[in-house]
Amino acid sequence: xINPKLxxxxxxxxxxxxxxxxxxxxxxxxxxxxxxxxxxxxxxKQDLSTIMKWWNGDxxxxxxxxxxxxxxxxxxxxxxxxxxxHIEVTSHYRPLDLPAFGKNVIYVEETKHGDPNNIFRQRIxxxxxxxxxxxxxxxxxxxxxKEKYVGAWKDLSRLNDxxxxxxxxxxxxxxLLVVKQGDKYHMPMADKACVFGKNYFSxxxxxxxxxxxxxxxxxRVADDSTVSEAGGYTYHELDRM
Length: 241
Hints:
By secondary structure, the protein is of the alpha+beta class.
């Protein structure tokens, strides 16, 4: 028969050991969680830096259009022949030093059909990190004056006086949400979230080190029917020039 005092001592030691293991385990789990969180933050910051570096440049989809044309696929021309096919697009992306907009700012200017007077897209993009999700987001800003800054990609000093008052930002639900996919960054909007009146806008980007692909369309909220799109909502595949 075990001595009652010995039994009590053994029980107390076992309890102390259990408590110690629980505390140690909690401490270990907290350290692992903290390390994982720090790694995720570091990775997101690296993604942001890489995106700013990669996006800077000039792009066109001449190679894609040549392949499509050879295959007999429709090309959306300046006279609207081939409407619904892919459009000839030239894109210019330039990082800007505009602290009023944030630390990571890009000027975007795209033209259709090789015509500098035919603006397809003109924006300011601001890139930031969602600290809760450890994810890079891209906010789209539109110009109030759509003509004043046309061609500014060739002379960025024209944008030195630009302030948020000269722009209007799309709502947060229209932000591009960056996800790393292999050697590219996929940047979709949240599904059916970018709503304007009776329609919702879908815009997606695939960014590589030397390529920039995009696709966009407008659908009706009521029944998801398509209002407008180009290339059947397949990507316009632009390569670095």
